[in-house]
Amino acid sequence: VSLQMMKHAWDNYKRYAWGLNELKPISKQGHSSNLFGNIQGATIVDALDTLYIMEMKEEFKEAKEWVEKNLDFNVNAEISVFEVNIRFVGGLLSAYYLSGEEVFRKKAVELGEKLLPAFNTPTGIPWALLNIKSGIGRNWPWASGGSSILAEFGTLHLEFVHLSHLSGNPVFAEKVMNIRKVLNRLDKPEGLYPNYLNPSSGQWGQHHVSIGGLGDSFYEYLLKAWLMSDKTDEEGKKMYYDAVQAIETHLIRKSSGGLTYIAEWKGGLLEHKMGHLTCFAGGMFALGADGAPNDKTGHHIELGAEIARTCHESYDRTSMKLGPEAFRFDGGVEAIATRQNEKYYILRPEVIETYMYMWRFTHDPKYRQWGWEAVEALEKHCRVDGGYSGIRDVYNNHESHDDVQQSFFLSETLKYLYLLFSEDDLLPFEHWVFNTEAHPLPVLHKDDGNKEENQK
């Protein structure tokens, strides 16, 4: 089914928005997100590995040809370093590792080089926004005191380690290792990592902590850096398990109805709200369970299962059976969005991602059942003639579509659904680590410094 969904999403993108970043499935035209500046083709690059894994060979071939002829980084435009890294660099790296096609390696390294000036700050903590022609960077104007954002500068590690591996240029890995150095030197309030860090002073901004937006994938990448290093990156491992310990102590709470949730921390005060983005953490806890210290493996799996259940409830308690952007646990509500601006669903993958990890680690059939409920809801409410659209209010009985088919729907949501219903030996976890955009990157085994030679 996810194969047919992918075909519907891809065919319509091709028909109405080919070469542009994303598709507007209701108006049947292209959508250009400002996250990518003037770089085009986000959906193509994001979908490459999904097309390959689903054996959509014709489609993969036309996507590859587009990349060869048209993917151009010589644009005078300001881009989000984080978004371009996870979608474009990550997408190209995966496409290369899966298909062996040299064009993807070449483009990935070329783009990596274009991103390097973002690190030209007093601390080496990169800017959020970079003009890739002039090399001038800056931060989001709304971010606390000119700060860089934890989830943005903390979600470069996997891709940059692979850029060094594929280019033979150590500078990429050095840049991301330095970020860790800065973080390790700093005092962490209660052992927690605030979401804001000033790249000039090297000091924290506001003491806000979140495992959802602004924080999320930093934690994911600590764990995955260790796994991707064939468990040799002891620093990444220690940082991850220490962080989880602090998260458990200060952020994880149980509602009166017995739902485990991860709250947000604002200068010592808890906000009892959980974002859809935070739902990835169930899968993260399961993935990290095996390496957990002091016999905590079962506890981490249990934690993953609890988060999966809470996130399933956030879906189940809506009219459309699709989860809201954020949901709360206060004033008598549990796992329900109380604010209009949190009731939307933009085809996000995090809940399905957690089902996929929980399925692989426990094989409890409920995760496939929950995944199937999500498929039915997507087909009923998000599928339109021209593709798939997000929804403005999941508690409403009739759809109000937002008219965007996000590139991550093809890259993540549909890939995680496909993997949830596939055998475990498709992209097995001992060989592959998924970047935060669901792009699989190979584990770098200790003995393969000359891996490239062996493959040729």
Describe this structure as you would to a colleague:
Its EC number is 3.2.1.-. Belongs to the glycosyl hydrolase 47 family. It is found in: Endomembrane system. One of its GO terms (biological process) is carbohydrate metabolic process. 47% of the residues lie in helices and 11% in strands. The chain is mainly alpha-helical and 456 residues long. The chain has one domain: Glycosyltransferase, CATH 1.50.10.10. The chain has a three-stranded antiparallel β-sheet. Helix 1 packs antiparallel against helix 15, helix 12 packs across helix 13 and helix 13 packs parallel to helix 15. The protein is globular. The two termini are 36 Å apart.
What is the radius of gyration computed over CA atoms, rounded to a whole number of angstroms? 21 Å
Unreliable stretches covering 5 or more consecutive residues: 450-456
Give the CA-based shape.
globular
Distance between the termini: 36 Å
Per DSSP E runs of 2 or more residues, the count of β-strands stands at: 18
The average pLDDT is 97
Strand fraction:
5-15%
CATH topology annotation? Glycosyltransferase
**CATH level 1 name:** Mainly Alpha
Query: Main sheet, how many strands, which sense, barrel?
Result: 3 strands, antiparallel
Function: Involved in the maturation of Asn-linked oligosaccharides. Progressively trim alpha-1,2-linked mannose residues from Man(9)GlcNAc(2) to produce Man(5)GlcNAc(2).
Subcellular location: Endomembrane system
Membrane topology: Single-pass type II membrane protein
Enzyme class: hydrolase
